[in-house]
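Student: Send me a single protein entry containing the residue sequence and its fold in token form, directly below this note:

Tutor:
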Amino acid sequence: MTGRPTVLIDAGPWLPVPPEGYGGIEAVLATLIPELRRLGVRVVLATVGTSTLEVDEQITTFPGPRFADIAAPYNRVMGVAAAHVDRVLQELRGRDDVDLVHSHLEAWGLVAYADSGVPVLHTLHWDLAKHPELYGSFDGGGRVHVNGVSAAQLAGAPAALRRHALGHVHLATPLAARTGPDADPGDHLVVLARLTPAKGQDVAARLAHRTGRRVVLAGPVGPYRDAAALAAAGPQAREHPDVRWFLDEVAPLLDDDRVRWVGTLQGAERDHLVATASAQLCPLQWEEPGGTGIVESLALGTPVVGYARGCLPELLDEGRTGLLVGRDDEDALAALLAEGAERTLDRDACRTEARRRFTPEVMARGYRELYDEVLERAAVRRGPVRSAV
């Protein structure tokens, strides 16, 4: 890629960039975009009006985030993503300086920009079994390419989607490039993630009571940042499926001793909780595609213990930065925790691996290479320019 290319990065309409507290994709983009700009990419960010990340241009449809609507009945929420995409398409039709669209909007982003006249890279951040009718028959016509956030994620993709894949780029964290004093580990375990069945906080709570270990759960439940916000929402909060699951399966196990839910933590408070944990506990109930919390944990010197599912085996060095047991083998995981096996892991190695593999610069260079490949393929499709006679 020569010169200073202009890339329209579609963050979607759900949360600002950077997010306030929790925000998976938006946090990834807040990490990626500054490094892309340092590598000479001009960024036009399609986001919500409350985004504060410095970019070259920002376009918006909604003044604020629409995450609270995301679990609403489809006939109430369907227009949100459609309106956001329509705004991006209007922008593309009205200018000719955008070299590439880099979409992060689930499902919509894969199909909306195929006929925009601009080559597309669509990053897959989620479970690729979710939309079988879309992913199982998708044809981007040579104009749309995808990448995963781990090799394991792409390996489980339908064949039609894999044919569009250019490879994977692991997620990153600014914490991997940090310098400063290391925290002394305590005896608690931490689960740093949105509270939802896929992340297995109910399993973590059971393991705490079963093994006598202390577990701290940090993250939001649905749109609710903490217990006060959830209580203030009243009975209607149960309309959200994650809230129903939390109230039925996790809340009865909270005792403010063995198991605590501390809500969404930010900045130094969140980092301190993780850095002083004996390990991050990951009893995943799904094939985790990217593992932002995993790379953050390693960057803070905290090893990971959990099930060998999704991307975990490729992010961890077994026996050195993590310990994994077979999927859903709660007995084996309980045995590791009961004996404190995570204390044998190398916290310095966790930080070293994070600096080597999961810095923002490493991720940005990976995407810059993918941009090059997408544009080279687009040039080949167009063919040589013929001179007028």
